[in-house]
Specification:
Elements lengths: L1 H7 L16 H13 L12 H7 L3 E2 L2 E2 L1 H7 L10 E7 L7 E8 L4 H12 L5 E3 L4 H10 L6 E5 L5 E5 L12 E5 L9 E6 L6 E7 L4 H15 L4 E4 L3 H12 L9 E12 L5 E11 L5 H17 L7 H7 L2 E4 L4 E3 L6 H15 L3 H5 L5 E3 L5 E3 L4 E3 L8 H4 L4 H11 L4
Parallel strand pairs: 8-11
Antiparallel strand pairs: 1-2, 3-4, 5-14, 6-7, 7-10, 8-9, 9-10, 12-13, 13-18, 14-15, 16-17
Helix pairs in contact: 7-8, 9-11
């Protein structure tokens, strides 16, 4: 009986008054991207035509869209009371008087955007500048570059652009540090990469995209590290499912040796003695990536303050400067970008610096030999799933990374880059 009910429900009926051309190609592709990012659709779906996508989603019958396809993707809707949204902000605690109202109509993906826009319009948010001195920011602005010295393109169509602000050294003593902030890529959030020089802590390269999928980001990192930075240290924020997914992909490749990890105690057994005592047995584990906690976030913000005050010559790119200018403290005490801005690049930068300042045993794990770095005031500053069992003598040798020849790498970059 349920089978026949499915056949005759409205959403499964052919929408005779509509054609495929009435459906929004943009909305269809956005839905596919969300499916790919969430791991519910294969990456190959991105290359399918609109008609093939609708067929695979069972939204076509005899070459015509069904009502469900129209509700999801049509931007030229006829009379559809089910796809209308009425919103109001009321005065006081009852519905006798309202101060604003709005009606919206559209497809399934349009209505949530309209509702969120109305809510944010009336949501009272406030923040305060986190104390980045305007004079310091002006000095940074005067020194950043508008255009990179060269770029590298990644992706099947070269759609992902990494910008280089300085040359990358391949010295085994000073491996570049790659900070990665991973986002779902949905709506305004972006995945970002910042690469710093571990000898000077200057920004060498940046990447930012709000449409790159997690498999594509893992592929970009793999190709860059294996081709141009075989001795790099790569730190990926592992909070949530996005960073963890990228790490899981990279752990199955030969860049596993480049991934930053922390040693933590993991409880593997608890034994109750029958009275009141519980004996816990733990073992040390490698946890790949960096976990953002409240305490660690405060450490990152402290690093940011120090960089803005004493290392204003090392930011390199105006993209990073623009994000710095929008950093605020929200009413909940969390430091992040203002409501109409972004902080993805800033935090990828801070993760790279976190490894430099707070990373443990970098000399034995990654052959990073820290030395003195100079502030722009010219005084010396001396710097000293994702789990696997930690082996105490797990020390890498220089041959693990296979030191590259600098001239060879520079030649590769010269061939690959596309000059602006």
């Amino acid at each position: 009986m349920g089978y026949y009910w499915d056949i005759f429900t409205l959403e499964n009926q052919i929408a005779d008054e509509y054609d495929i051309s009435d459906l929004s190609e943009k909305q269809i592709l956005n839905a596919v991207r969300m499916g790919v990012r969430g791991g519910r659709m294969p990456e190959s779906a991105l290359s399918l035509s609109t008609e093939d996508i609708l067929k695979r989603l069972s939204l076509l019958k005899d070459g015509k869209p069904i009502q469900a396809a129209v509700a999801l993707f049509c931007d030229k809707l006829h009379y559809t009371p089910q796809l209308k949204l009425r919103m109001a902000r009321f005065k006081g605690i009852n519905k006798n008087e309202f101060v604003d109202s709005q009606n919206a109509s559209g497809c399934f993906f349009d209505l949530p955007d309209a509702g969120m826009s109305f809510c944010f319009k009336h949501l009272n948010l406030h923040g305060k500048v986190i104390g980045l001195n305007r004079e310091d920011l002006d000095i940074i602005e005067a020194q950043v570059k508008e255009e990179p010295i060269n770029i590298l393109r990644f992706g099947k169509a070269g759609q992902f652009v990494m910008k280089f602000w300085d040359s990358i050294s391949v010295s085994s003593s000073y491996p570049p540090i790659i900070g990665v902030d991973v986002s779902s890529g949905i709506r305004k959030d972006a995945s970002a990469i910042t690469i710093i020089d571990s000898q000077t802590t200057k920004v060498l390269a940046t990447f930012k995209s709000n449409f790159i999928t997690m498999p594509e980001l893992a592929d970009l990192l793999y190709n860059f590290i294996t081709t141009y930075a075989r001795n790099a240290i790569c730190v990926v924020e592992n909070n949530g499912g996005f960073g963890s997914s990228v790490l899981q992909m990279l752990l199955r490749t030969n860049v596993k040796k480049n991934l930053y990890y922390e040693i933590k105690d993991k409880i593997i057994e608890e034994q109750f003695d029958g009275i009141s005592n519980v004996k816990k047995t733990s073992k040390k584990c490698k946890v790949y990536g960096a976990t953002s906690s409240f305490q660690r976030r405060n450490e990152l913000i402290e690093i940011l303050h120090q960089r803005v005050q004493h290392h204003r010559d090392k930011f390199a790119t105006k993209e990073l400067y623009d994000e710095l200018c929008t950093m605020v403290v929200k009413s909940n005490g969390k430091v992040e970008h203002s409501d109409d801005a972004h902080d993805d690049l800033v935090f990828s930068y801070l993760w790279a610096l976190y490894v430099f300042y707070h990373g443990k045993d970098l000399a034995t794990r990654f052959h990073l030999m820290k030395t003195e770095i100079f502030t722009d005031d010219h005084y010396e500053e001396t710097s000293y799933n994702l789990e696997e069992e930690y082996i105490d003598n797990d020390v890498l040798t220089p041959s693990t990374f296979g030191d590259a020849v600098e001239d060879s790498v520079q030649r590769k970059m010269a061939k690959s880059r596309i000059l602006l």
